[in-house]
Amino acid sequence: MLQKNCTKPVCHRMACRRVVQQCVVMSESLGYARVSTAEQTAALQQDALRAAGCSRIWSDTASGSRTDRPQLAAVFDQLRVGDTLVVWRLDRLGRSLPHLIETIGELQARGVGFKSVQEHIDTTTPGGRLVFHVFGALASFERELIQERTLAGLAAARERGRRGGRPTVLSPAKLKQARKMIGEKTPVTEVAQVLGVSRATLYRRVPELAEARTRPALKESDAGVSLLP
Q1: Which among 39, 177, 211, 221 is least surrounded, fewest beta carbons within 10 Å?
Q2: Averaged confidence pLDDT in the chain
Q3: pTM of the prediction?
């Protein structure tokens, strides 16, 4: 017989309600597979993903460097808090290490786990999260090294008198030849064809050409003004 103030039946009902809610909102493991060409098959990846417990699998046929992967976007739309995205191998998901770290970070921000079958990585466990923190540190270290080498290379080039950027189309020798041909009244179109440059390049690099092009218009304007009563 229950005491008057006993709350066990209420606690029992609340526990049952929580169990029901947990059963209704169950987490899923969703798989993603990718092959680079139509000649390849994703069967091996799909079998491994099913063995890993994936209830549904999406497959893309696209190069890893492509950003437009419709099936990857589709599986991302289906992922909910508590779900886990499973891939056969890390390179099936990310185009590069920085992109992979960014993608996993996005999943973690959404409350979604990540597993890689081949590398035995599982971010739903402390060990798996530690591995990806290490990966993130390595990616950051790699970016800093590349930046440092680039700046050092530019500084060394400046010391040797070299300038960065695209090489000029109109070299000093060609510019000298262009001025000579223009002085001999050679048409601008012919000069451009001989030197292998565009008319716009000639007008930009040879100021006297631009002045000569605008001078007749100024004279006509002056003449028009002088004819006014």
Answers
A1: 39
A2: 79
A3: 0.55
